[in-house]
Design brief:
By secondary structure, the chain is α+β, with helices and mostly antiparallel strands. Helix content is 15%, strand content 35%. The chain folds into 5 domains: 45-302, Cysteine proteinases (Cathepsin B, Chain A, Alpha-Beta Complex); 306-408, Immunoglobulin-like (Sandwich); 412-584, Jelly Rolls (Sandwich); 593-696, Immunoglobulin-like (Sandwich); 700-727, no CATH class. The N and C termini lie far apart (151 Å).
């Protein structure tokens, strides 16, 4: 019995020794790779910081119904072969990992993350932005959940959603530190960073293609995405995560890059908001298509390091036949402006855009010149400038997809109202609450209502002007203008400032604000303008031509309709700075300069006077007037023009003869060339040139000298000639 026990011990020892030797001799790196690439890799919960909270506490996504309807999508179509691997961490484009703690504010971290990374990528500075401001001061969400794109709307520089103090743009962490609960808002705060816009990626609801998300990451930095979190996802500590899959999304994160060479088909580098002790220092490598990763993917477009501002805005209307100047500011934020790179790009009736350079007027201010337009023209224009590192930037940022436009003609106001007094507006209601009334806003903007009026006069029209629950409920309210006489012009023009929000409540972004116009004192109405269903905080200017819908008579009325016809949305509206004008365009049209002729003088005696002529003609619009001048001529000789310039040249005047007199240079045996430049004084881009040629002959003495030299060469070449001619 004892011998059998000894044999068993010996056999067991040999087995243990064999296993130990085998492990020592194995490819340990390969073994580690096998473990790393397992289906999912977990450890005990007491080593994972996420163990302190449930999935419901950590994951806070509240998906709006039909969020994709009327939303902005960018297909992000790849422009070529994409690299196998790309990682913004390696390129210095990722800020430190954060920890949302037990607040379901993942949506806020998913929105802030791409913006912080963009600031680092474009401005080369690391900033810490406040998620708490989004949680406490916006309607994008709370610790109970939210939606990343709603948060991005509060980051927009222009037309962004506003906090209770009427401000938009990101807030610094130091101004409102993260506390992981629904703390009260203490605005106002500074808002030093903003985005131009944001966009969903792909072509519609769901998960975009892998290629589209890759292109977006390369073009716009790390992107916000939605994902499905399971217990295995929550317990992840490293390796490649490939499941298990799940059926519904519940968590918002950031994607910072990819690697096609890892996993079965490739992996995303997923950036979480559960601290650096979770996963691989706060990151996860997750296979493409796993856990619905990429749902509702979006990118943010951070403002460029070089920014083109328009301090005085763009003109609402310009007169025909004359140039228009627009003031431009080129702001160096995190890059240096390339001198003389600023341009205005313009066209009047479609076709190819023309360009002209901005002219410096001191400091960072410049002037752009829009050439004369004619009645009926539709001017379109945008601006560009270059940064030393950034390259070319535009205003609007996505030009020429978006451009500025203006009217050509003249407006004559017939009725203006800042609502400081009652000028005859009427209100009709078919709603339970939220009727139009005139007053100074008192709601504070906490439920989407305007905190102030538009023009600073104090009063405006609002839907139920009171603090708290004051929105339109269960129906519509009409605000109807007094009767307007727009019969004095060829057209009528209506402009107004509107505040409209419907993005709060149980059914956001579903109602419409509608504007109607009547030409028979309100007996019949025609729909002129629809705003929504997507809405944005802030006052916006709107306008329309009356003649596009009805005849501009002396019985025109305008009706503004705010309605709550869907399920439980919060609808707030405000109206200010209303103006009705007649519109005319009786300009002289757009002149167009044309020149003909040439100035050519051969063998002119040095110092003598010669004459010539050329023609100037206006080939522009009928009735247009051309003012022209000779702007440049050669520096040689003494020039006299009769006349040097002219005014009011009409197309029907035909060709205008300009006489030229020049005293030739005194130099002999020379050719003088050049050109005249004649310009349209109203449009420096409209010019023509006349070529000039003048030659002076050799003197008699020089001719004799050359003849003797030639004769001497002949004698030297043919000695017999000396004998024949006895030279």
């Amino acid at each position: 019995m004892k011998k059998k026990l000894i044999k068993k011990i010996m056999v067991f020892s040999i087995i243990i020794l064999f296993i130990g030797t085998s492990v020592s001799a194995c490819d340990c790196d390969k073994s580690e790779q096998i473990i790393t690439e397992s289906k999912f890799w977990t450890n005990s919960s007491d080593e994972n910081p996420a163990y302190k909270y449930t999935i419901d506490e950590l994951c806070g996504i509240i998906e709006p119904d039909d969020w994709w309807v009327n939303a902005k999508f960018d297909p992000c179509t790849p422009r070529g072969d994409l690299p196998d691997t790309f990682d913004w961490r390696e390129l210095g484009g990722c800020t430190p990992i954060k920890d949302q703690d037990g607040c379901g504010s993942c949506w806020a971290f998913s929105a802030v993350g791409p913006l912080e990374c963009n600031i680092l990528i474009k401005d080369n500075i690391t900033v810490d932005l406040s998620e708490q401001w989004l949680v406490s001061c916006t309607n994008a969400g709370s610790c109970s959940g939210g939606w990343p794109s709603e948060a991005c709307n509060y980051f927009k520089c222009d037309e962004g959603y506003q906090d209770p103090c009427g401000d938009s743009g990101a807030v610094l962490e130091e101004d409102f530190p993260y506390v992981a609960w629904d703390a009260p808002c203490g605005c106002p705060y500074d808002h030093p960073y903003c985005i131009e816009t944001w966009s969903y990626i792909g072509n519609g609801q769901g998960v975009p293609s892998v290629e589209a998300m890759k292109q977006a990451i390369m073009d716009y930095g790390p992107i916000s995405v939605i994902v499905c979190v399971t217990q295995e996802f929550k317990d992840y500590t490293g390796g490649i995560f490939s499941g298990p899959n799940c059926s519904s999304t519940n968590h918002a994160v950031v994607l910072a890059g990819w690697d096609d060479n890892q996993g079965s088909n490739g992996v995303w580098f997923l950036r979480n908001s559960w601290g650096t002790d979770w996963g691989e220092e706060g990151y996860m490598r997750i296979e493409y298509g796993v856990s619905i990763v990429g749902y509702a993917a979006l990118y943010v477009y951070y403002r460029d390091p070089i920014r083109i501002n328009l301090p005085e805005g763009v003109p609402e209307i310009i007169p025909p036949g004359v140039s228009t100047t627009i003031q431009v500011q080129i702001e160096e934020i995190a890059d240096t402006y390339v001198p003389d790179s600023g341009k205005i790009h313009y066209r009047f009736n479609g076709g190819t855009y023309q360009t002209s350079f901005l002219e410096s007027i001191g400091g960072d201010l410049y002037e752009a010149t829009l050439p004369p337009a004619s009645c009926g023209d539709i001017p379109e224009f945008y601006f560009s400038a270059e940064g030393e590192n950034t390259g070319t930037v535009y205003n609007p940022y996505d030009a020429p997809n978006s451009v500025y436009t203006t009217l050509v003609g003249e407006l004559t106001p017939v009725f203006s109202d800042d609502f400081e007094s009652d000028l005859g507006w009427t209100v009709e209601n078919q709603c339970a609450d939220g009727q139009w009334e005139r007053g100074i806003p008192i709601g504070g903007g906490e439920r989407g209502d305007p905190p102030t009026d538009y023009d600073g006069s104090g009063n405006c029209y609002l839907t139920d002007n009171e603090y708290g629950n004051s929105d339109v409920d269960d129906g519509y309210t009409w605000l109807i203008s007094p009767t307007l006489d727009l019969s004095g012009g060829s057209e009528g023009y209506i402009s107004f400032a509107l505040w409209y929000t419907n993005n709060f409540g149980n059914d956001p972004n579903n109602d419409l604000f509608r504007v109607f116009v009547s030409d028979d004192d309100g007996n019949n109405w025609v729909l002129a303008k629809t705003i929504g269903p997507q809405s944005y905080y802030g006052w916006k200017k709107h306008s329309f031509m009356v003649g596009d819908f009805v005849t501009p008579t002396d019985q025109v009325k305008v009706r503004f309709e705010a309605s709550d016809l869907m399920e439980g949305s919060v609808v707030e509206a405000g109206l200010d700075a209303f103006k009705a004008s007649t519109f005319e365009c009786n300009g002289t049209g757009y002149p167009d300069l044309n020149c003909s002729g040439n100035l050519n003088w051969v063998s002119i005696k040095p110092g003598s006077t010669v004459t010539g002529n050329f023609n100037v003609k206006n080939v522009g619009d009928p009735g247009s007037n051309l003012d022209w001048e000779v702007e440049e001529f050669p520096e040689w000789g003494e020039w006299t023009f009769n006349p040097l310039n002219g005014e009011n040249l009409k197309p029907e005047d035909g060709e205008f003869l300009v006489e030229v007199e020049i005293v030739a240079p005194v130099e002999q045996n020379l050719i003088f060339e050049g050109e005249l430049k004649i310009v349209n004084k109203a449009d420096s881009e409209d010019f023509c040139t006349i070529s000039v040629y003048l030659s002076t002959p050799r003197s008699r003495a020089s001719h004799n000298f050359l003849f003797l030299k030639l004769l001497e060469q002949i004698q030297n070449s043919f000695p017999i000639l000396r004998l024949l001619f006895r030279i």
